[in-house]
Design goal:
Structural class: mainly alpha
Shape: elongated
Distance between the termini: 28 Å
Radius of gyration: 25 Å
Order of helices and strands: HHHHHHHHHHHHHHHHHHHHHH
Helix content: 55-70%
Largest sheet: none
């Protein structure tokens, strides 16, 4: 049985973006005109090796100056504040390199990637956030599209310089209640997703060497919905999708129970928004992936996951089809789950589905119905399987 497929998405900043500025003077935005006039007088720099070397040298000088000032005046922030601002400006300038990914190998050979990665551990969290944002820009899927080899060189250098470990460590000091830090959390998750897309083995490496799974687990336990909780659910699904090692590791972390608690919040109510609905689907995707190893099927049955899925089906809310899907994964090649399904009157609950009376999401309704019917057939096939047929005594 194939695990659910995750599709990469883009951040929707519409809810977090400030309202547009008021237009005055007949609808003319003076700030926009001012910016355009300034841009006309700013020479456009050609992106080539010479430019990369110039930017890298300037960045290294500011980094060294900041390091020296911090070492000389460790207890006097006013002594190194200016060098920190200059370092911030240099990091902003490096973002231009995202426009020329073919130059990434040069950036690596100059040692700049090593220096940027080191800033993820900077004492000033604002500088670390700048580094996160820069890495997110450099590894963005749209940027590295059709530039596989340069992207691979960059990602290999980041991994070699412990970027994955430092990214996750930096998450621990970021607070969702702060707008800038909340954006940095999102950018950190986005960077990790980008690294996995270029080098799929990062999926297991990040779970083996860091506490990312633990962080994601804690994040999806938060009751309130927000964009970072949604993204955490998506990253977790990506990590679990094609990795038996990650599935087993998260199962050992009580991950089955965590996901059952997450979906239980929607047993008698529907998600309020499309984004929240996507998050709930991510939870079910995670659960289905987690139910691939046999030991997690056992944990699912012990945690009364079969009963919860039947309760969700009885409520006939939008999660109905997802509950059937989870049951299909749990019951495939696992007779104890089939027996539990029959014992708790699962056939009675599922009977309306066999009659076509099923609540389906309006989105992709035809595709959902086809998948739903396949899941039902698979579920019945599990019940009628040759080994341990739970229906033989009924």
């Amino acid at each position: 049985m194939d695990p659910p497929i995750q599709n990469k998405r883009k951040r929707d900043d519409s809810s977090d973006s400030p309202p547009p500025a008021s237009f005055a003077n007949g609808g003319v935005d003076l700030s926009l005109l001012e910016a355009l006039e300034k841009a006309q007088h700013t020479p456009v720099e050609t992106l080539d090796l010479k430019t990369v070397k110039k930017l890298a040298l300037s960045f290294e000088r500011r980094l060294n100056a900041n390091t020296a000032a911090r070492l000389k005046y460790p207890d006097q922030p006013d002594k190194f504040a200016d060098s920190e601002m200059e370092l911030h400006d240099e990091l902003q300038k490096l973002k231009i390199l995202a426009g020329a990914p073919e130059l990434y190998p040069d950036l690596v050979s100059l040692g700049t990637v090593n220096s940027i990665t080191g800033l993820l551990n900077h004492d000033n969290s604002d500088i670390a956030i700048d580094a996160v944002t820069l890495l997110q820009d450099l590894t963005d899927a749209d940027v590295i599209e059709d530039n596989d080899e340069p992207a691979q060189v960059l990602v290999d250098a980041l991994i070699e310089n412990n970027a994955v470990e430092l990214l996750v460590q930096n998450l621990a000091r970021l607070n969702d209640s702060d707008q800038d830090e909340s954006a940095a959390i999102y950018n950190t998750l986005s960077t990790i997703e980008n690294l996995i897309e270029v080098k799929p083995s990062v999926s297991e490496l990040v779970c083996e060497k860091t506490k990312l799974l633990k962080w994601l687990q804690a994040r999806i336990k938060v009751r309130e919905f927000d964009s970072n909780k949604q993204y955490a659910s998506e990253i977790l699904a990506i990590l679990l999708q094609n990795s038996t090692a990650n599935q087993k590791r998260f199962g050992q972390m009580n991950g089955v129970d965590t996901l059952l608690q997450a979906v239980a919040m929607y047993k008698s109510r529907d998600p309020k928004t499309g984004d929240e609905e996507e998050m709930v689907e991510n939870f079910f995707d995670c659960l289905c992936c987690l139910l691939m190893p046999l030991e997690n099927k056992e944990r699912f049955v012990k945690a009364e996951g079969v009963e919860l899925m039947i309760i969700i089906m009885n409520q006939k809310k939008s999660c109905y089809g997802s509950a059937i899907r989870a049951l299909d994964f749990a019951m495939t090649n696992y007779p104890p789950a089939c027996e539990r399904f029959v014992d708790v009157m699962g056939l009675k609950t599922a009977f309306p589905a066999f009659m076509g009376k099923i609540p389906l999401s309006k989105k992709n309704k035809k595709r959902n119905r086809e998948e739903f019917e396949e899941r039902l057939i698979s579920l019945i096939a599990s019940l009628l399987g040759k080994k341990g047929n739970p229906l033989q005594n009924y």
